[in-house]
């Protein structure tokens, strides 16, 4: 009985930690075009356009004729 409770508690703990890590984890993706004047906004729009959740903030790096977005969801 006690070990079952322990197992349950650790399961809840692990899923909580995993969920939290996923939330903080930055999302990276490469899109066509440059970063533009406001890379933050450009990247947020790119993520929305591809159907992902709207990031709260992004960093943009020009990458040839593409740009790399690193966003926090
Ligand atoms: C990026 O844009 C969002 C929404 O406009 C804003 O809330 C956020 O603070 C901006 N982040 C940076 C790093 O400028």
Automatic annotation (TrEMBL):
Residues 1-26 form the signal peptide. Coiled coil: none annotated. GO terms for biological process: signal transduction. One of its GO terms (cellular component) is extracellular region. It is found in: Secreted. Keywords: Disulfide bond, Secreted, Signal. It holds the Pfam family SCRL. The keyword Disulfide bond applies. It comes from the Eukaryota. Transmembrane segments: none annotated. Belongs to the DEFL family. This is Uncharacterized protein. It comes from Capsella rubella.
């Amino acid at each position: 009985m006690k070990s079952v409770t322990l197992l349950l508690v650790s399961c809840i703990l692990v899923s909580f930690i995993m969920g939290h890590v996923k939330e903080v984890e930055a999302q990276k993706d490469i899109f066509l075009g440059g970063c533009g004047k406001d890379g933050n906004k450009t990247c947020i729009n790119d993520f929305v356009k591809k159907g992902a959740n709207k990031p709260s903030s992004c960093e943009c790096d020009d990458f040839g004729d593409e740009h790399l977005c690193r966003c926090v969801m």
